[in-house]
Amino acid sequence: VRTEISWNDVVRGPQTVDLASMSDPVLIRGDGTYLYTHPSVVDDIELGVTHVIRGDDHVTNTAAQIALFRALGADAPEFGHHNLLSSISGEGLSKRTGSLSVKSLAEAGYEPMAVASLAVLIGTSEPVSAMQSLADLAEVFRPEMASRSTAKFDPSELDTLNRSIVHGLPLEAVENRLSEMGVAPEQARQFWELIRENLTTVNEAADWWRIVSTGPVQADGLEAGDAEFVRAAFEHLPPEPWDRDTWKQWTDAVKIATGRKGRQLFMPIRIALTGRQTGPELAGLLPLLGREGTLARRP
Fold this sequence. Notes:
Structural class: mainly alpha
Oligomer: single chain
Number of strands: 6
Number of helices: 13
């Protein structure tokens, strides 16, 4: 006998499922213990649950559960069934394999709001952008924006979102994490404001603190001719005190003495100071290193 269960889905709109098209749900195992279906309905009634939002693979389960609510003399809560997530290759995400677990993303250094922004906004009509808080995310999200098709969760998109969030983080938001990396408290603000716009994750600050505090592990591509140039350039270091103008004073003197300019001048010096070809502004780095710390990097 056709028995239709209908409801207005928060995400998918009007839904109808014929219970006759389903196998009878098993509520009690042979040993007398209950399966999920019945206890979850009882719990929702007892707790006064008003909304149940879950994946669209539960649509038919919802029909059976609504029938149970009615059989128990209770009003069913509002149900919403959102689209599912898959990996970028189209494979389903599995709890059993730990794929893209929140724990693994946290250990990789992704900020909670980067993960939340991507997870909530992909597969919707809203552009994916980094939200600063769950309240901000709630303001832009509407359940009916969700697509019916599976959304692909690309972890590489997290890098863009995470950079956006990290670049705007004040010191107070990362102070404890920097302290755990060994960043000296008296240098924390100067250090963070210098390097944050070069980071994808806050975790990467540890590498930069090592460079600032102890020097580069090795010079990345400093050739023999450049090494000789840098040794000569260090002869023209200005006296202390140092500030953001020191870099210009130094490079102006080096330009006059050697004839070098532009990339040929600053890149070998950057590599000698940091061991990297990219990084924070050298005008801001020099005051952090100090004259003694800078001289220690002379090749």
